[in-house]
Specification:
The chain has 609 residues and is α/β, with parallel strands linked by helices. Helix content is 42%, strand content 14%. The chain has a five-stranded parallel beta sheet, sandwiched between helices. A two-stranded antiparallel sheet has the order 1-2. A hairpin with a 5-residue loop joins strand 12 and strand 13.
Length: 609
């Protein structure tokens, strides 16, 4: 006996269960099979001739009508589906690691847009599998991120360190060959060159000059070379006296000094090439930035400002939502508890953590997790505009203290003033002929004096008379009010790109900053410095708040960070920020760097109008 379940089709395409009926069926062989008789044909007639193929007459069309026009193609209207035809699941699906739902099944794993495999879907029909794939595609699109191109800094860093070793070895061998060029036995000179080629790189390595964390960092590399060079120079002088070397007495000392200079210069060239490549988006290190939502914006701004550092933010790990403008397109990958997992998923080579984001115990455990991963851990202290030279690290039991220098000493201020006056006097003598020619040209091309005198505010708010070559008409100050509506400055400084008061010669003088040359006289007088903030006008300084008044703690400068960073193109907050950075962090080395950048800023002419 068999039970047959009858399913009756309904008009809506569904089915209705009519119940179960029980019928008594005969044995399976009781249904007769119909057997047709074999067909017979007359003698000599083949089966194909018995049923000839029907030949249709060729179709005819009216004159001028093409066959394609006689039967136009049928155009089907586009199909429309309701919005809920393919509902999107409320819970997102993690395609990387399938979870187990409540009923014990396995969520589908998407391998391609039209294939769903895994779990209970292995037995699903083609239509059902396609429907499920379409349902999960929006979720997949939200989760899948574009793959970034592979970074090449690790291999480039190894090549960089190899180049340093070769540079040091060749330079040391050349210095030894120069010292021993008068040796009677050539083998002695060759042996000395080989020993120097091995000893100098070994000394640099012993002082950390080839350490991976110091690669292309700048001062740390140079300090290692200077310390190693000092040791090698003292050893060379001692050996020359012990062996009674037949060479000028100063040569054993001068040769190592020259070798150290060449080694430092070579590092400067290599670092310049690295920084140039990084500014063009190469040799970058993918970096995951972690911290409080309010703090990561400042960290990202610092990384964007100094692209030469080579840290490329690929993701954020924060405690909350981040301002879109501050994030600047860097995606938020997760929260702080997921930090170790996110480092691996983002492919980061550097983990940069703001020190206020994690408690000390959590930060300590994070260092354990990063151990052996090849990921460099960096901390961003909660300091604003503090140069590394102002900070020293000191241990106190189990804690680490940062000592921050809070200002220049009186001796440093006096030394800077004396150097400024001497260097200003020398520069005035060198630039004197150019200054006289420019002054004569001003007198000949427009009526009025060659020099323009204006009251400015100096150190501690003291007024002084600043000198410039006149680049405007003599009635420029009287016409200022009528041009107020055309101001293109930053809200505090009055600037117009095509100022009608500027003379044709004045535009050339401003373009190359030649109108600033008379301020060397102010430097010699002690009213200004070679490097410092821009001297403000009295009505400008009257509007200063407490932060902006900090700019008046040092002497104003002939050039400065503001001048070499864009001048009039900068906003007022950026101008104040750069000036305060200089006031808080100035140093002799920093002044030399700004003077060197001034040459490029003058030739480039950016912001000079």
């Amino acid at each position: 006996m068999r039970s047959l379940r009858l399913l009756v089709p309904q008009p809506d395409g569904g089915g209705e269960d009519r119940g179960t009926t029980t019928d008594t069926l005969p044995a399976p062989a009781t249904f007769p099979v119909s057997v047709d008789r074999a067909a017979t044909f007359p003698a000599g007639v083949e089966p194909a001739d018995a049923f000839p193929a029907r030949v249709e007459p060729p179709a005819t069309f009216p004159a001028g009508v093409e066959p394609a026009d006689a039967f136009p193609a049928r155009v089907e209207p586009p199909a429309t589906l309701p919005a809920d035809a393919f509902p999107v699941p409320a819970e997102p699906v993690d395609v990387a690691s399938p979870a187990r739902p409540a009923d014990g099944g396995t969520l589908p794993v998407i391998t391609s847009p039209d294939v769903v495999v895994g779990g209970d879907d292995a037995v699903a029909g083609p239509e059902e599998r396609l429907r499920r794939a379409v349902v999960h595609l929006p979720d997949l699109a939200r989760r899948v991120r574009p793959v970034r191109p592979a970074r090449s800094w690790r291999s480039a860093a190894r090549a960089y360190r190899t180049a340093l070793v070769v540079l040091d070895a060749v330079t040391a061998a050349a210095a030894a060959a120069v010292v021993l060029r008068g040796a009677t036995d050539p083998w002695v000179g060759l042996l000395a060159a080989l020993l120097a080629a091995a000893a100098v790189p070994a000394a640099v390595w012993a002082h950390g000059g080839y350490a991976p964390d110091r690669t292309a960092t700048g001062p740390a590399e140079d300090k290692a070379v200077l310390r190693a060079g000092t040791v090698v120079a003292l050893a060379a002088v001692a050996l020359s006296h012990l062996t009674a070397l037949d060479a000028p007495p100063a040569l054993p000392l001068l040769a190592p000094v020259a070798a150290v200079a060449v080694m430092v210069l070579g590092r400067l060239v290599l670092r310049a090439q690295v920084r140039r490549a990084r500014r063009h988006g190469r040799l970058l290190r993918p970096t995951l930035v972690a911290g409080d939502a309010a703090a990561v914006g400042g960290v990202l701004a610092a990384l964007r400002e100094d692209r030469g550092l080579g840290l490329d933010p690929v993701g954020l790990c924060t405690t909350g939502p981040v301002d879109t403008h501050a994030a600047a397109g860097v995606p938020v990958l997760g929260s702080l508890p997921d930090l170790p997992q996110l480092v691996a998923e983002a492919g980061a080579e550097v983990l940069l953590v703001h020190d206020a984001a994690l408690p000390a115990a959590e930060l300590r455990r994070l260092t354990w997790l990063m151990e052996g991963s090849g990921v460099e851990l960096m901390l961003a202290p909660n300091l604003l505009e503090v140069a590394a030279g102002r900070v020293t690290v000191q241990a106190a039991g189990g804690a680490t203290l940062l000592r921050v220098r809070t200002g220049a000493t009186r001796r440093q201020v006096r030394t800077k003033a004396a150097v400024d006056r001497l260097a200003g006097a020398a520069a005035l003598l060198l630039a004197g002929p150019v200054l006289l020619v420019c002054a004569a040209a001003v007198r000949l091309t427009s009526p009025g004096p060659a020099l323009y005198r204006q009251t400015r505010v100096g150190v501690d708010g003291a007024p002084f008379t600043m000198l410039k070559l006149r680049t405007m008409s003599v009635d420029a100050d009287r016409r200022l009010a009528e041009l107020a509506a055309a101001d293109e400055g930053n809200g505090v400084l009055f600037k117009i790109r095509r100022d009608p008061r500027v003379t044709p010669l004045g535009r050339v003088l401003r373009r190359y900053s030649l109108d600033e040359l008379p301020q060397l006289i102010n430097v010699v007088r002690g009213e200004m410095s070679l490097v410092g903030p821009r001297p403000p006008l009295p009505h400008e300084s009257e509007k200063y708040d407490t932060t902006e008044r900090r700019r008046l703690k040092v002497r104003p400068g002939l050039t400065g960070l503001w001048q070499v960073s864009g001048r009039s193109d900068l906003s007022w907050p950026d101008t104040v920020r750069l000036d305060l950075r200089y006031v808080d962090n100035w140093s002799p080395a920093g002044d030399l760097g700004i003077l060197g950048r001034t040459v490029g800023a003058v030739l480039g002419g950016r912001g000079a109008y």
